[in-house]
Design goal:
mainly alpha, 4 strands, about 240 residues
Length: about 240
C-alpha cells in the first residue's frame, strides 16, 4: 500500500481518537463534576477567609479592651490625684477637666469601634456557619457524584486507550520522516493531511501555485499547502 494511503488511514484513526478525547472533556457529567468541585473550593476558601477575618476582629477587640483598661486606669488615677490635691487655680482645674475629657473621649471612641467590630464579627460568624452548612450538603452530593463520574471516566479512558492503540497500529509501514512531518503539522493544523482537489487544498480551500503543484510529482505525491501548512495528497 502506498505511503499516502497508509497516512490517510492513520489520520482517520488518529482523528477518531482525538474526537473521542474531546467528547470526554465535553461530557455533561464531567462538566457538572468540575463545576461542583469549583463551587466547593470557592465555598471552602470563603469560609476560611471569614474565619481568618473573625480571628483578626477578635484580636483587635482584645487590643481595644486592653487600651480601654489602661485609659480607665489613667482616668481613675487622675481622679484620685484631684481628690487628694484639688487644683489650686481655675486654670489648673480647666486643664485637669480637659485631660479627663480627652480620656473619656478616647474611651468612647474605642468602645464604639469595639461595638462595631463585635457586630461585624457576629455577622461574619453567621455567614460562615451558613456557608459551612451549605458546604456539608453540597459535599455529600459531590462525593456521590464523584464515585459515579470516576467510574464513567475509567471506562472512557479504557476506550480512549484502545483508540490510541488502534491509531498507533496504523503507523506500521509509514516512513518515520513522514510521520514526524504529520505530528509537527498537527501541532498547529488539524487535520494535518488533506486531499488536493483541482489545484485547491481540501483543508483551507485555497488554490496553490502551479510551481507548487509540479513539485508533487517529485515528492512521492505529497506536498505542503503554502497557505495552511497541511500535507496535501493528490485526489
Amino acid at each position: 500500500m502506498e505511503q499516502t494511503e497508509l497516512l490517510l488511514q492513520y489520520q482517520q484513526a488518529d482523528m477518531a481518537a482525538d474526537a473521542f478525547e474531546k467528547e470526554i472533556k465535553r461530557s455533561p457529567n464531567r462538566i457538572a463534576f468540575k463545576k461542583n468541585r469549583d463551587f466547593l473550593m470557592e465555598q471552602q476558601n470563603a469560609a476560611k477567609k471569614m474565619e481568618s477575618d473573625v480571628a483578626h476582629m477578635t484580636d483587635r477587640v482584645e487590643t481595644i479592651q486592653l487600651a480601654i483598661a489602661r485609659l480607665e486606669e489613667q482616668l481613675s488615677s487622675m481622679q484620685k490625684r484631684l481628690n487628694d490635691a484639688p487644683p489650686a487655680t481655675l486654670e489648673a482645674a480647666q486643664e485637669a477637666a480637659r485631660d479627663a475629657q480627652k480620656l473619656l473621649g478616647d474611651i468612647e471612641q474605642y468602645e464604639a469601634e469595639m461595638q462595631k467590630i463585635q457586630k461585624n464579627a457576629a455577622s461574619q460568624e453567621k455567614q460562615e456557619k451558613d456557608i459551612r452548612m451549605k458546604f456539608a450538603k453540597a459535599k455529600a452530593e459531590y462525593d456521590k457524584q464523584k464515585v459515579e463520574y470516576e467510574a464513567e471516566y475509567k471506562e472512557q479512558m479504557k476506550e480512549l486507550d484502545l483508540k490510541r492503540k488502534q491509531a498507533e497500529e496504523k503507523t506500521v509501514g509509514i516512513d518515520p520522516a513522514l510521520l514526524e512531518r504529520y505530528k509537527a503539522i498537527k501541532l498547529h493544523c488539524t487535520p494535518p493531511v488533506a486531499r488536493l482537489y483541482s489545484g485547491q487544498c481540501g483543508g483551507c480551500n485555497m488554490s496553490l501555485p502551479q510551481a507548487t503543484l509540479r513539485k508533487m510529482k517529485n515528492e512521492s505525491g505529497i506536498i505542503e499547502c503554502e497557505n495552511c501548512g497541511r500535507m496535501l495528497i493528490q485526489n
